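Lab meeting, item 3. Inverse folding demo.
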């Protein structure tokens, strides 16, 4: 089966019951994506598929053949850390680091969702020109990514700083 992983074409043969997470980690050697609960509860396995965040532990790899998959290994470009990765370092957004790859991938897609004007349950004003990426918005939108170390303050600060100003008009009121 054919995939594009971190911009590179990949051919892989595997049991049809293999999860996308196991394909990445065990077949392709991309161990940056972590296996936490393996049942969709922790977000450690979050990767991007065509820019959308998904829990790779809940996805069968065969569902995603032909799609473009980005893991944490694909966030840095030409040896430069993604701005969000640098912000995590500057804001102490991790302790053990086990949740961090999922936090990073999830936050990148989350910012894109905000940029598309998708409101969350805490978006107060759906008629506003932009969705301000407040601490409450970040916490709600990142609530699927757990951190056992409790590094949430640094995580929220890093995300808010990196994506400040990227909000857009909520979807219902977009032109
Ligand atoms: Fe996938 Fe926990 S390992 S959500
Ligand atoms: Fe340890 Fe988040 S930094 S689980």
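The presenter then showed the designed sequence:
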């Amino acid at each position: 089966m054919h995939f594009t992983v971190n911009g590179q074409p990949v051919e892989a043969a595997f049991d049809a019951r293999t999860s996308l997470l196991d394909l990445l980690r065990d077949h392709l050697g991309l161990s940056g994506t972590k296996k936490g609960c393996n049942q969709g509860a922790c977000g450690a396995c979050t990767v991007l598929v065509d820019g959308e965040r998904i829990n790779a532990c809940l996805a069968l790899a065969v569902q995603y053949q032909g799609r473009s998959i980005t893991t944490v290994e694909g966030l840095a470009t030409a040896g430069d850390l993604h701005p969000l990765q640098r912000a995590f370092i500057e804001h102490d957004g991790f302790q053990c680091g086990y949740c961090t790859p999922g936090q990073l991938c999830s936050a990148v897609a989350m910012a894109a969702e905000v940029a598309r004007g998708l409101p969350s349950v805490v978006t107060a004003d759906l008629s506003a020109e932009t969705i301000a990426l407040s601490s409450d918005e970040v916490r709600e939108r990142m609530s699927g990514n757990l951190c056992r170390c409790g590094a949430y303050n640094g995580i929220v600060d890093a995300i808010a700083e990196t994506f400040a100003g990227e909000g857009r008009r909520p979807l219902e009121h977009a032109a």
